[in-house]
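Help: why these numbers?

___
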Amino acid sequence: MVLEKLGESLRETLQKIASSLFVDEKLVNELVKDMQRALLQADVNVKLVLDLTNKIKARILKEETPGGLTKKEHLIRIVYDELTQFLGKDVRALTEAKPTIVMLVGLFGNGKTTTCAKLAKYYSKRGKRVALLSTDIWRPAALAQLQQLGKQIQIPVFGDAQLKDALAIYKKFEPELQKYELVIVDTAGRDALSQELVDELNALNGYVKAQERLLVMSGDIGQAAQKQAEMFHQSCNITGVIMTRLDGTAKGGGALTACSVTQAPVMFIGTGEKVDDLDVFDPKRFVGRLLGMGDIEALLEKAKEAFSEEKAEDISERLMKGEFSLIDLYEQMEALSTMGPIGKVMELVPGFSQVKLPKEALQVQEGKLKKWRYIMDSCTKDELNDPEMISAGRIDRIAKGSGCSPSDIRELLKQYKTGKKLVKMLKGGPKKAESMMKRLGVSLR
């Protein structure tokens, strides 16, 4: 998860509250210290941390607990509210002009070209007619990289490696670009923000008059992000920020919070290397995931892309009844694999981010799914419906019939048991989490 360590620290802090008999000033002080430590370790600016935690402490000590909430629930609600406000509160969507021209700007090495493709894929999946334009005349492979990505996602790419003027490239393809609803322009970068780069971007934007000028910034930049965001904003009047590389070891806190206090809010975050690994940055949903409340809306969006409506209803009905067979396991893993890594999907379910399951139990490769189908074809109908009845002797027979090893079959049965455990948890965990969130006044949809 993005800022995984910060999320774990905050959830541990809230767990202390839940297990305490009383909420007094001593507990509040401990909460504040724990939050300060967690935020500072996530590379958040010291002054911002003090401002945030002082606000939380003041509200907890001064506000009366509303009717219907316990003191602990009110305290958690305050933490949720203030963290959400801290990170920008609301989502900032792209301008709805036709065509909408989006210029992506930023320094070398921040993933700007890849982000162009991610953004194009995101909006093409939502029905937009999208085109990509490369105006990077400084990096030799920029156009070739964008063309390769465009072919992968089936989005047209325009550019001319022979022209050495960004504005000339745009003018050459301008009539063709008018046919699209969304045009994403990949601009040149530099090792540092120089006057040369500022002049080039201003000349291009002065003619193009892009509705959106988005700064692409790496999450591992740390607290230098605030200065970079402010400098680009002053020179290019950026309208938003896209954060990349928030899936690895990057602390990310400095980058996210720095942008939240400028005039350039974070609009998207990159959560992986694949073209589908781009999420809208919604502070409310983001904080909900940090605190272990899940993200039902994001889960539903992914499910709509992966399941037909009839299939989703069928799977949901069987899960809620607690029915789970080897066929159910295969179908659900096959569908879930199209939604992304299983670990990322599970953290969207309320309460599941706090479940400590081994990573290997959540990772299913495509090759395994093929093996599983061969194994299931060698099982009897009764064995598929009740895998518990498969004995050691039957494992050897199934192995010979399927062309797989006995260890492959044991691995499948182990995965089945893990899946059954998750189904049992699903019957209670998410409902309890959903009920808690409703009491706290947090919308799930």
